[in-house]
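Re: the request from the purification team.
They wanted to know what the chain is likely to look like in 3D before they choose a buffer screen. I agreed to run a prediction and write the result into the notebook, where they can find it.
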Amino acid sequence: MSQNFGSSNPTQPLSVGNVVSAGLQLYRSHLKEYFLLALRAYIWVLVPVYGWAKCYALAALISRLAFGELVNQPESIKSGERFVNSRIWKFLGLLLLMFLIGIGIVIGFVILFGIVSILSAGMIGSLGQQINPLIVVVFALIAIGLSIIMFVGFLWLMTRFYLVDLPLAIEENVDATSTISRSWELTKGNIGRILLISFVSVLITFPFQIIIQIITSIIQVIFAPLLDNGNPVFSLLFFVLVLGISFAGSAVVLPFLQTVKAVVYYDLRSRREGLGLQLRDREI
């Protein structure tokens, strides 16, 4: 892609608007190809373990292809898929690691919140019957403040893992653990901007997701009398129809989010490492 995305100085970050616009432009230019890849990814979700890794790899492939466009090294889907398929078990390992990390983070915050709640309750209880309303208000404000801090901390941690799938799908000599470190390195100092980019991107997809929900609700209303009869044929048809619409709707949204992620990755790498970024040798 030869377009200038709005930064005359390569060391200056692209604006939030430029990142989202570039992602949208890539998405529109390759809508059919990216949609079919995303649809295949969601269908693979139905296959346990291997299918989950395949889904993750195909989603990352969309970002790889978009990144290739950004560095003027367009790649065929066949070539890109061959590369991510060669790392399918690494994607499975990454998926497992991220699941464990996510569980650990949630447990950590739950424990921290529990400790704060117990300490607050204990301090209020130690005051006995003569509780000053002002003290209650102060404790409530402290609890709210701590909750906000914990929520921001959670978002901060999750954003550090925003790019974990891209190095594994693009860079050489990367495995399930080093790709996490790579994401942590690239996102350093850019948390707020990445959060804002993610928020704007999701906001753009919101109207479409509402439409999908409306369509699903209409189908539920239509099938409600048929499902009340307990006919297994109608139940199966309803399930397949709703699942198909859900997959198709998600397959429309996912490529846009992945192309935006590719632009973020491109922007961070170009500012940190220069524009001489190379993909592996491949057939185009």
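For the purification team: DSSP finds ten helices and no strands in the chain.
Please add any questions underneath this entry.
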